[in-house]
């Protein structure tokens, strides 16, 4: 759904119409539906921590579509690739379609120069269009960072707000999380003339800030945002499924220098069980934690 929404938002901007009125044209064709669904299935099956996308070749020349002859990249593709590292002219045809761009935009976390990693598996996809100079291939690597590096650069977006209905914060936070914010939190402050207010803090990865700023500006009463780059160090996390008296539950193990320092069940799983069984969530949590410690 995130991939399809990327296309819908781009078409909405290109045609100047609401997302709900977008007609998908080529992307609604069966092959595009299979491409998007297949990519989503593969992504979930691989269960990777993140997707890195190398520089994307857009191609060149003109492309014939529902609206006539258009220059490469097509308008929808041009909207979707914002924030990606791209290049043009490698081939004289459309090398990146709106469907392909949407898959990369929705799944990709880092774009441009490839990260240092140890390759464990390699996969190839071969297209039907022939080109004498550049092979029509898509190559995907599955790998791991050799030293399990957990530090990286991130951004803190923050703004002071003292004139907004506080009930709006939950709605805004949900939208920010849905668009890729790593964390959203509020800090109480006293502003000029003794007015109480809040600092809306949003932590995000580099490349996601434009969409998050748009949400803050359009959904809140803020008129200015501070962008602060910083280094973010996190524990390496692994998710596993275990069998409990409540059924299958996801647990999260956290590691520091390859040494496990914490292990706990996912809260959403515990909450779901508590609601279904009609028992306190703390009882579910404690029973699963007891099982985890017992299995050590």
Distance between the termini: 39 Å
Element pattern in H and E: HHEEEEHEHEEEEHEEHEEEEHH
Per DSSP, the total helix count is: 8
Helix content: 25-40%
Kindly name the structural category.
alpha+beta
Uncertain spans: none
Output mean pLDDT: 89
β-sheet strand percentage: 25-35%
Instruction: Give the strand tally.
Output: 15
**Which sheet architecture does the biggest sheet show?**
4 strands, antiparallel
Strand order, sheet with most strands: 10-11-9-12
Radius of gyration, Cα only, in angstroms? 23 Å
- The figure for the number of domains is 3
Shape summary: globular
Q: Could you list some keywords that capture this structure?
A:
33% strand; Alpha-Beta Plaits; 15 strands; 296 residues; four-stranded antiparallel β-sheet; 3 domains; globular; Ubiquitin-like (UB roll)
Please give a quick description of this structure:
The chain is 32% helix and 33% strand. It is an alpha+beta fold and 296 residues long.
Write up what this structure looks like:
The protein is α+β, with helices and mostly antiparallel strands and 296 residues long. The chain has helices spanning 2-15, 30-46, 75-80, 98-107, 168-178, 209-219, 267-277, 281-294; strands spanning 51-53, 56-57, 62-65, 68-71, 86-87, 108-111, 118-126, 137-144, 151-161, 183-190, 196-205, 226-233, 236-244, 247-256, 259-265. A hairpin with a 2-residue loop joins strand 13 (236-244) and strand 14 (247-256). Helix 7 packs across helix 8 (281-294).
């Amino acid at each position: 759904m995130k991939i399809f929404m990327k296309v819908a938002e781009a078409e909405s901007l290109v045609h100047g119409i609401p997302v709900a009125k977008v007609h998908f044209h080529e992307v609604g064709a069966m092959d595009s539906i299979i491409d998007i669904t297949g990519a989503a299935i593969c992504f979930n099956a691989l269960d990777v921590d993140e997707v890195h996308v190398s520089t994307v070749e857009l191609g060149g020349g003109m492309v014939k579509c529902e609206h006539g002859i258009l220059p490469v990249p097509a308008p929808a593709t041009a909207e979707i690739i914002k924030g990606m590292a791209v290049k043009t002219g490698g081939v004289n045809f459309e090398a990146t379609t709106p469907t392909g761009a949407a898959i990369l935009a929705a799944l990709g976390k880092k774009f441009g120069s490839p990260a240092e990693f140890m390759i464990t598996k390699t996969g190839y996809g071969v297209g039907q269009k022939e080109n004498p100079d550049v092979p029509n291939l898509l190559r995907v690597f599955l790998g791991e960072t050799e030293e399990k590096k957990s530090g990286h650069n991130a951004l803190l977006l923050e703004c002071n707000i003292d004139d907004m209905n506080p009930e709006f914060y939950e709605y805004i936070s949900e939208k920010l999380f849905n668009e890729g914010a790593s964390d959203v939190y509020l800090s109480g402050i006293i502003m000029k003339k003794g007015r109480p207010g809040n600092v809306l803090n949003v932590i995000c990865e580099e490349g996601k800030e434009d969409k998050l700023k748009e949400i803050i500006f359009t959904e809140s009463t803020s008129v200015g945002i501070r962008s602060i780059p910083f280094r973010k160090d996190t524990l390496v996390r692994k998710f596993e499924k275990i069998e409990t008296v409540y059924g299958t539950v996801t647990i999260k193990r956290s590691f520091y220098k390859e040494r496990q320092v914490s292990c706990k069940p996912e809260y959403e799983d515990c909450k779901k069980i508590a609601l279904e069984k009609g028992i306190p969530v703390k009882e579910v949590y404690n029973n699963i934690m007891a099982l985890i410690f017992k299995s050590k």
